[in-house]
Amino acid sequence: xxxxxxxxREQMCTDPPETALQRPKRRRVLLLVGTCLLGLLLLVVxxxxxxxxxxxxxxxxxxxxxxxKKIHLGLLMFAGDDPNHCLPxxxxxxxxxxxxxxxxxxxxxxxxxxxxxxxxDIRNGLTDYVLLVPGQPLDALSPESALMITNPRFVPEKGIxxxxxxxxxxxxxxxxxxxxxxxxxxxxxxxxSGG
Length: 195
What we know:
The chain is of the alpha+beta class. The protein has helices at about 5-15, 15-80, 90-95, 120-125, 155-160, 175-185; strands spanning about 130, 145-150, 160-165, 170. The model is unreliable at about 50-55 (pLDDT under 50). It has a domain at about 55-185. A hairpin with a 4-residue loop joins strand 3 and strand 4. It has six helices and four strands. It has a four-stranded antiparallel sheet with strand order 1-2-3-4, covered by helices on one side.
């Protein structure tokens, strides 16, 4: 006759009591680890879904607003030093005057614009900002007048930031009509009076 002994059954019966108590603990740990991994996976998927639109656009708005506010202070200092309280004729003049010699302020990080080294570089387009009212007397502008904008080439992806005379920076998805008119005025040759 063969004895009726199953080795696994014998092992279960001879396990010390603490091992039996450890089994539920292992299950809880595995459940906790699984929950954490699932939560992490959901966070990553949710985060990647938001990044291209909200995070990048928000970062662009914050970066340009900060730079425009700094440049606004420079414009105020420049106009304060000018006998007629006029703004510079171009952003390169603001650099050349010594008001802003740090060239990093003239570009938006990640824009692909080459870092300007001189006022001439800025005059020749190595900047991500446009001065809308060059040479204008600061005192003649209303607080709601647009002084500067981010380069309109950013509009399709990131919108446009507009610096007002008051120092406020506003963000728009599209170029506002009054800013379009100012840009047109900048690019159109002055009408001749001779006819």
